[in-house]
Specification:
By secondary structure, this protein is mainly α. 67% of the residues lie in helices and 0% in strands. It contains 2 helices and no strands. Helix 1 packs antiparallel against helix 2 (28-49). The radius of gyration is 16 Å and the shape is elongated.
Length: 66
Amino acid sequence: MWAKRALDRLYILYNETEELYKRSKITVPLCELRNAINTAWLVIKMARRRRESVGLHYNIDTPKKR
């Protein structure tokens, strides 16, 4: 499923960014990158939990309402 693939890729980005964060001077762009990764993780996790299609979170396997 797309969400699993997205989480796998995000996990790679997270680890790379954390290594960079540990060995680099902390900068605004680096902090913004960490925040963007955390935000993406939250969006994906919440999209996976949602069982109905609303707004941004669209599920192709959701039964249609009558």
